[in-house]
């Protein structure tokens, strides 16, 4: 049965911008898997990448995040389909930053029989038969049990074994259940110091199959320390002084944590088990798994970089990080099992290691060369290679990337631009050609008449003005000598207040309150309209302007937005509560997945509200009923469905603190021109949304689709971009 691909992203409430480099790494991993040094990006995770049917990137030329929210109602398809969104750092040269530098779509054949582009290469299949990995494991992909060490292999490599003379007093993990290919993997790594007894454990780390840290503990040695080996272990005398945990405590905890069919993974794991004085029957040793000839072994640092594309054990750090090392060993084993021996052999690790050593020698020579010498040799040196693009790698592996668009693509050298091609013609080509390609980039544009800088400035001011009105409420009337402190306290229970002032232009005083989050303003309108506050029965309403006439429609659509599905907003928290306190208080809520506590982006202090994301929508509904009226530490909580995702919350905060300076000098001069063209622009945006919908529906299941509003970065100012992404599933909506 075909596995369904999923996408998870740690984006709820984070509001942090994703850089062009991070986006590039995501696309590279999605297109290539773990080959060619591609690795899972840290900010999101693709499950079952090898089952992806393809990758489609839709670029909306010269459009930014503000376009999405100015025409939010017109982008009906985008907001209902893509659950994962992120703010994107704008780039001065977006095509190059997206495709990568050094793009060359014409692979060259070298005399050695290798097909290469830049530093990437694939070994001829005839050479694979001699590879130590193929000789040991064969060419076919196998389950994890085929890669665990046999009892004899453990004995030969100095693993602690039950009944062996040197293992007297060792503790067994008692994981004696039969292993299967579905048995769970755990990464293990220890740091040791030299004591009077020998090598003793001073730090232990254990990670599960998802790379989550289960144990990271300092351990007090039994004997006096002779050498802390700080350069490698990172352990110092000061670190161990307050530690009370002993080896026996760690042994007990490991026995409890490991299931009976657990498979331990580590790099030269025998040293760790010897230091732990523990016996475990089923192990995968990555120093032996990635086999070399003549008994040599690859270092973990090299394998992590060459196979996973990760830098570990960096010289800048004091000592090794055992959690990082345990996770690297685990991911290496997972890569080997998922890809199989042939894919690993094709990486040609021996050649990569040789190249790395040659580069080090070259750097050392350059560092030792006296200043002013070797100038003539430098003149004759070829220019350094630019960063290889993953589109090159796709072509080397026989996959042809598809690039369609009418503007901007020529700057990357990928294809000739065709300014006469319409969005309609681009869509038609895409419907025909995308199914034939593993990786596609489709670029649409509203046209040059809609991307001028003055229109961007006008759009920004309109979006800012509308969001400000939606965050603002008017409450009153109050008595002449009303208590302002009572008003602030009551309305503050709905969420963080940006500003509060008394309106004196009316017969009786009113209060104008601007909140920091949309949910707070909506809670105030819904919960305090008609309530008695500061001794007066008051009315609560938003400003009445032409732009606010569709406010209720917009609020409803935001509430139904797929990104807010299963997310609720909770206000009335005491600022003394920490995130740990809240996790404990809300732990009784069923299916709670994530808690986000918004912080002031300048002071770093958290607000009196939070967002809760649930695995199931019904659980969020149940939580709303449970939380409303709930008292926590003497404070009554208020809650409602979420309206603004993390990236929009950050954007609102930035606009609240920009004082409307951006583009204002242009805005007033050009407002009339913007008003004349905006109606036509709405129609074009609606049509563009329809075209993306048509393209999306034509995609195969398990296709990763990324829609990018690249943002603007020019001499007139910059506007952040926006990314929407998801993996299409059977229901037509993106899988999460």
Automatic annotation (TrEMBL):
Note the InterPro entries from the entry: Nucleotide-bd_a/b_plait_sf, RBD_domain_sf, REX1-like_exo, REXO1/3/4-like, Ribonucl_H, RNaseH-like_sf, RNaseH_sf, RRM_dom
- Listed GO cellular component terms? nucleus
Q: Which GO terms describe its molecular function?
A: exonuclease activity; RNA binding
Tell me the ranges covered by the RRM domain, including all copies: 471-545, 566-644
Pfam families, per database record: RRM_1
Coiled-coil spans are 671-698
Recorded superkingdom: Eukaryota
UniProt key word Lipoprotein = no
Q: Keywords assigned by UniProt?
A: Coiled coil, Exonuclease, Hydrolase, Nuclease, RNA-binding
Identify the CDD domains for this entry.
REX1_like
| Name by which UniProt lists this protein | REXO5 exonuclease
Taxonomic placement: Eukaryota, Metazoa, Chordata, Craniata, Vertebrata
